[in-house]
Automatic annotation (TrEMBL):
Topological relation to the membrane, as annotated: Multi-pass membrane protein
One Pfam family per UniProt: AA_permease_2
Name by which UniProt lists this protein: Cationic amino acid transporter 4
Sample GO molecular function, one term: amino acid transmembrane transporter activity
Keyword DNA-binding (UniProt): no
Subcellular location as annotated: Membrane
GO cellular component terms listed in the entry, alphabetical order: plasma membrane
Annotated keywords: Membrane, Transmembrane, Transmembrane helix
Amino acid sequence: MRASHVAAQLFRKKSFTSASALDSQLKRCLGVMEVMFLAVGQMVGAGLYVLAGTVIHKQTGPSIIISFLGAGLAALLSAFSYAEFGARYPRAGSAYTYTYVGIGELFAFGIGWTVILEYMIGNAAVARSWSGYLDSLVNRAISNYTLETIGTLSPGGSFFARYPDVMSFLVVCATAVIVALGSKSSAVVNTAFVILNLGVTAFITIYGLTFANFSLWIGTDENGKSRFFPFGIGGTLSGAATCFFAFVGFEALATAGEEAKDPRRTIPLATFGCLGLVTLVYVAMSGSLTLMIPYNEINPDAAFADAFAAKGATTAKYIITIGALAGMLNNLVS
């Protein structure tokens, strides 16, 4: 009797009626555009500037545009489930809430803490990357000043960093304050950074196309390999699997369900809108990059900056860095 009672408590499910699912203690103030940009901010971050170059150089070549289209389609199929759940159960909690309703409290408990851990580690990594990009923008002035003032805390290569990363701590505190001001305020800030980031991606794409050489896509090279499919169809399919990680973040839409106006309309529209926009951005940017220089000359670590530098457009490096900074701030705020 006692064991069955414990099992019943562990696997009990939360239930919502059609009316109670819409009840919320939070203010429903987010429209379609604001919810959509919340997910765009999660997806179009610094990862794009690194992921595209790595996949092009090692897996796909110019056929990365097909890989991104395939990955976008796979993400869309997954998004159908999130859109359905988000419309049916418009509550905060996303996967935690859906698991609680569908499977039970024990599994929801594990998933809830896993999601929290994911966001903690992810935000820490993004904050460190943001600090590094900002430091490179000012020619290492921040790290040099910190080392001169505080000194080295641990030798290079140890578990801990060489010096305390004050800037990453400050940016996490700043974004925490923005989020604490309320969903409307954080949505306004997030939208502003998304627009800035999309502006930078548009600049990279359009400016890159001025250096376009379509012969890099056509015919075969001196070794008889297709220029568009240098790694074959298998490489393109493998690249699609890697490119799927660029779409991770669309589930952020579901967390906004409890603060969205008319969530049964807002969540599905925002889901499909953000995936369409992000897929277009990825295809356009990666296509522009592969038309600028041969795929095997692309630097996986700094693909866009080095490509423009190879064309003599070194000023573009700073614009790309600003885009990466804006993208990472999007990740932190959203």
